[in-house]
Specification:
The protein contains 6 helices and 6 strands; from the N terminus they run αββββαβαααβα. Strands 1, 2, 3, 4, 5 and 6 form a 6-stranded mixed beta sheet that branches. Strand 1 and strand 2 form a beta hairpin. The protein starts with a helix and ends with a helix.
Length: 181
């Protein structure tokens, strides 16, 4: 397990370097995404993401987003990625570290743009699930370049993300109890 963490750290540091593109620096950003449940069923689930980059002075910076939604596993990933990308104010090269081939893969291979151009329908004419959320993700992803690294193990930020999700879930239980009183 430690070997995987060390490898992720090495990859992470390599991917965060600034590169020159078209005369200006383009920021490389890593986004680590997780949910609290991999079930395909529709249920309440927590999600979180860590956005990692180097500031202009070369110091590493991380930003966290987290929340809860009612839906399937893909919806939680869409929500987490949308909130993470919404933090970015300039076009970036974004590397997504996640365990969801469907969401991250469809962004990288351009299928989301095909759906958008096809009125949010598949090539077979079937409507896309979570259309509104895909629209939001498409809006915030505009101008960014994407890469996807599928990780099956825990990421370097798993403990932090899962702690954020647990905190939100605990607050949600308290809120639900208050509403029932």
């Amino acid at each position: 397990m430690q070997g995987i963490v060390d490898k992720c750290l090495r990859i992470s540091k390599t991917l965060m370097r600034r590169i020159s593109g078209g005369g200006e620096n383009v920021l490389k950003v890593n986004v680590y995404i997780e949910t609290d449940n991999g079930s395909k069923k529709k249920l309440y689930r927590g999600y979180g993401a860590v956005v990692e980059f180097l500031k202009r002075d070369g110091k590493p910076e991380i930003r966290k987003v987290s929340g809860m939604c009612y839906g399937n596993w893909n919806l939680a990933y869409i929500q987490a990625l949308t909130e993470a990308l919404d933090l970015l104010i300039k076009p970036c090269i974004v590397t997504m570290f996640a365990n969801n081939d469907y969401v991250c893969g469809n962004i990288c291979n351009g299928r989301v743009n095909e759906w958008r151009l096809n009125g949010w329908h598949t090539a077979l004419g079937e409507p896309i699930a979570n259309t509104d959320e895909w629209r939001d993700l498409c809006r915030v992803s505009s101008g960014h370049q994407f890469h996807f690294v599928h990780i099956r193990e825990k990421s370097v930020y798993s403990k932090e993300i899962q702690a954020e999700i647990k905190e939100i879930r605990d607050r949600g239980r308290y809120w639900q109890q208050m509403q029932l009183s």
